[in-house]
Structure formats: structure tokens, C-alpha cells
């Protein structure tokens, strides 16, 4: 396995769906490869019971675009398919990206039906990047969002990401660790994520460590000898309360007697976590071990964590693996990449996809999302403007409903606004530096903290308002009446 993520390497131009390449070949044959277009990435639905999403995956996608080349071995393989002529294959050999990419910065809170990434340039290459963009942003946004919800349930207590062994392959583990860190997890068990991204790594020992020794007490003593300052003992191998916790207490007392100022810490991985944690805490404090750390694992998610806290569990750190790294209750984000405009000389013509399913109808035109805040600094709604349209910056904001653009809508009493897009690539040239992962994580935490409670509750959150500007709404209404404008 390589020691760097896929998107930092060349030779991955074929990480795409075949239909992207057949369309690209058709554009070349029809002399339309240079037709300038605009695509936008958005998603249609939040995960169940989520009131927000955390945008993640943009950095890896931009690094992928920077390294996007077709190598000789790629060309040779495509030639074996019998689908593509030599002219198209030579076109691929000479290909270099020239896209302009605008996007919401990673770590920003985002909501359904608003553009998160806008890709503009020749249709030949704008079509090519679709699959990689969807692959990268859909998964990492999903996991960052799941992590943020789990961290909300933990109420500020650390949530350690333990998902590597249940992740969907090596890159699922690596990308998932990155996204979980953005979403709020302060550490990961994934050592490669520590190396590649600088994420703090954490871990204890397995039941096999205990079982490999003649006795549980000997196993605990051996672990404490080797890691006296980072000693967390797994106490549920045999009998948590009658064996594991008493043996752990003895070992921590011995550490303190030897002059180590080690915080007593145990991990519970099975059983009634609420009951066991309360009794373990009592036993440890009665033995003179103050402020013990009690880590819980065992297939946790945000609902179980919230329930354990309601029961008064004495748990103050959480290890979450399977439900986080796979987002078990929502294994895929409904992200889409849709054509919204086609250039006609210096002008742009809006395009719309219409469906009997209202959720699948798109919002036409090259758009610019703007977020509005109340006087207390809480976000209250987003408006999608056309590029270059005059933007109302505060007060009552008039617009149209995106689901029915004939109906007017309003966001009232706004105090300020913030443009969400920033330009990342300008005609193939990167124009902003990749922010540090810690800064992306901080942006996400500030965003979640700024949301009113009705959007962060774990069940039935309020629906955040995203509406169209008057101009976008009017244009959509007209295209719904007459979509065939080619």
C-alpha cells in the first residue's frame, strides 16, 4: 500500500466512469470539446435527522485536479477497449486541465440544493472530473457530518475515531479519518492518517493482549510498564467489576507509588455501559483514584451516546468506529453534478433538468450562494444569486421558493451576509493555498456552534431555508415553462 492518498498521485485519470469517456469522445468527434459549460455539485437530501452537513473533500479533489494526466499506460489500456479512435486517444495524451473552480471552503456548513462546488470550462474536461468529485465530496461530507452529530451528542467530551477496521477499504479508512477529524473527532486510531494528515493518534490494547498473559493482572502490569504515561486498560475481558476494574485499580496505585502522575483510565467495550461505568467510577474514586477517565466503545452512535448520558453514565471519552466510518444509518450522500449553463460567446444560457420528482429538478444558471445571519451571529438562511447579480446585504431579503419559483419567499431581519464561494482554480491554475486541516476543522466547529439549537437537535431538526434570488427564481420559472432553449 502506498503511503499517500490516491488524489496526490498521477496515473489516476481512469478513476472515472466509462460514460464520461464515451461522452468526451463524442464531444471531440462532434467538434464540441471546447464548448464552455458550467456544472455545479450539490446534494438533494441530508442524512436522516440531520439539520446540516459539513462540507469536506474539496482539498483532495483539488489535488486530484492538479495531478490529472493521462499516462501512456492509460492510453494503451483504453486502446484495447475498441471504443476510441486514435484522434481521441491523442487528445487525451495532450490533455491538461484548464478549469475554473469555485467552491464553498471545506468545513463550511452546507444544506440541500445549494451549490457546493462550481466547475467551469471546456465540456471535455468538466465532464471528466465528475466522478472523482462525487466520489470525494459525497463520502467525506457524509462522514464529517456524522462525526459532527456524534460530537454534539457527546457534549464536548472527546470522540475518538476507531473505524479503520470496518471502513470500506484502505482509502475509505484514510479519507474517513480525515473527514471525521474535520467533523470534530480530536483523534483517530488510524496511524497512516496520523502520518499523512497529522491527526493525533490514540489507542489502548486489545483483549488478545490480556488473554496472551497468564493472568489479567500480569497483562495490565506489563502494559503499564511499557506505556506508563499513556496507560488505558481494557477491563472487560473476563469480568469487568469483579476482575478488570479491581486489577486496573491495583496497577494505577502501583504506578502512582512509583512516582508516575498517570491519570487512571479504563475502557469498557461490552455490557451495560451505563451501569458498569457508574460502578467503575465509584470503585476507582473510593480507592483514591481521582478524576478517572472512563472510555466507552462497543458500536456507539449519536443516539446511544445521548441515551447513555441521559442515564447518567460516568463515561467521559468515547471510541466510535463502525457507525461513524460507514455512516451506517445513511451509507451514501445524494450528491449530484449537473450542467447548469452553456456559454454562447460572452453570454451564458441557463440549463435546467426537469423531473416529476421535484427534488430532482435543478436550479438553472451559474449561481453564487450567500449566507445571511441575524444580529446574534446565527445563520438564518441562504440565497442563490446569479453570478454578477446585485446582492442585498442585510434587512429583509426577498426571493423565490426553489421548489416552486412562482411563489415569493423572504428571510427577515438579517444583520449581515457572507459570500460562500471562493475561487480555487482560475483557468487551470490554483489561486489559493490548501488550508491546514486544523483550520478546516476549526471552521466546522465554529459553524456548528453558530447554529441555533433547532438545527442541531438529534431528532426532527428544523429545516434550514435555502431560496432563490428574484432573478434566479424568475429564470427557473420561465425554463420550467419552456426548457428546450437550445
Can you offer a commentary on this structure?
This protein is α/β, with parallel strands linked by helices and 486 residues long. It folds into two domains: 6-144 and 330-364 and 420-461, nicotinate phosphoribosyltransferase, CATH 3.20.140.10; 153-325, Aldolase class I (TIM Barrel). Helices cover 37% and strands 20% of the residues. It is built from 17 helices and 21 strands. The protein has helices at residues 18-29, 58-66, 72-80, 86-93, 123-128, 130-154, 169-183, 191-197, 207-211, 216-226, 240-257, 273-286, 302-310, 322-325, 437-450, 453-456, 470-481, and strands at 36-43, 53-54, 100-103, 109-110, 117-122, 159-161, 187-188, 233-234, 265-268, 293-296, 317-320, 335-344, 347-350, 367-373, 379-386, 395-400, 408-414, 416-419, 422-426, 429-430, 466-468. The strands form five sheets. A seven-stranded antiparallel sheet has the order 13-12-1-5-3-19-20. A six-stranded parallel sheet has the order 7-6-11-10-9-8. It has a four-stranded mixed sheet with strand order 18-14-15-21. Helix 3 (72-80) runs antiparallel to helix 4 and helix 6 crosses helix 7. It is globular, with a radius of gyration of 26 Å.
